[in-house]
Design brief:
Strand order of the largest sheet: 5-6-7-10-9
Helix content: 10-25%
Largest sheet: 5 strands, mixed, barrel
Radius of gyration: 28 Å
Amino acid sequence: MQLPLQITFHNMTPSEAIEAKIRQCAAKLERFYNRIISCRVIVDAPHRHQRNGKQYHVRIDLTVPNAELVVNRYPPKHQNYEDMYVAIRDAFDAAKRELQDYARLRRHETKTHELPPYGRIGKLFPEEGYGFIETADGDEVYFHKNSLCNGDFEQLQLGNEVRFAYSQGNKGPQASTVRLLGKHHLIG
């Protein structure tokens, strides 16, 4: 880290053991992304429930090039962070995941989900049970009525918009699945 680690205790007395644990966890973060500019950790004991005991909140602010990553670990409804070390572990695990995601984004390794190819019904042969889809680049792709996932083949009309999945057939490209698009249909 370019700037020294900052640890702040709020509503509780500082502890050398807890501070040592935070320093150890913060040092491990640099394994996942070695260009961390600064790290600020705030440990808070905001709740003083008589029945449940103290619950701890850990916040980690990481400054990295062109971004600031913030991890807040409030006790979830189904789990009480009565153990300070569990709260710290969970917060730093979340910070590690944030850093890994940020590093992937910086390396342009994020997943992209391409939409299936798009086209319009160009030719229909209802008696034979097949048709052709005209793609945006002018190709024709064969499809059989059984490949239609939503809608009724008998109700198809020329010009209907579709998304489809390519496969290679005996006589060239064909659509293995065809999804009818429209105002009442979902892409998927």
